[in-house]
Amino acid sequence: MNSKYIEVCERLDWTVREYKDGSVDVAKQSPAGEDFSFGVSSENFVDEVKQYAAYFNVDEHVEMWIEARRNGVRGVPSSIRELVEDAEAIDKMLQELAAALAEVEDDDDSE
């Protein structure tokens, strides 16, 4: 995987773990303390990050945590407002990451 992409991720406080099978985990803690992560492939890293960001659904993310809260999962905020605000922050983090990676990809393509 292009080291420039890893540098962009780390500059935005994302952790990147690349595995021998070509899979990549991208992770960052949300403002409410969620250890948020998602998986993509190293081969299509930028495209898959952009796709994940484009299809991230704030409502679905909140619903998942509301259900977890009902089931007594520890560490889940008790306030639905906080869950919504956190999911919106995650969406913003993903959009920022996708845009930054796309910019580096465009610079690489123009060289």
Number of strands: 3
Shape: elongated
Report the structural category: alpha+beta
Strand content: 15-25%
Average pLDDT figure:
92
* Major β-sheet strand ordering: 1-2-3
* Residues in helices, as a percent range: 55-70%
- The N- to C-terminal Cα distance equals 18 Å
Radius of gyration: 15 Å
Given as residue ranges, the uncertain stretches (5+ residues, pLDDT < 50) are none
The arrangement of helices and strands along the chain is: HEEEHHH
Tally of DSSP helical segments? 4
- Let me know the largest β-sheet: 3 strands, antiparallel
Topology (elements, then pairings):
Blueprint: H1 3-11, E1 15-18, E2 23-29, E3 35-41, H2 45-55, H3 58-70, H4 80-110
Antiparallel strand pairs: 1-2, 2-3
Helix pairs in contact: 1-4, 2-4, 3-4
Task: Note down, in words, how this protein is organized.
- The chain contains four helices and three strands, in the order αβββααα.
- The chain has 111 residues and is an alpha+beta fold.
- A hairpin with a 5-residue loop joins strand 2 and strand 3 (35-41).
Short description:
By secondary structure, the chain is α+β, with helices and mostly antiparallel strands. Helices cover 58% and strands 16% of the residues. The protein has a 3-stranded antiparallel sheet with strand order 1-2-3, covered by helices on one side.
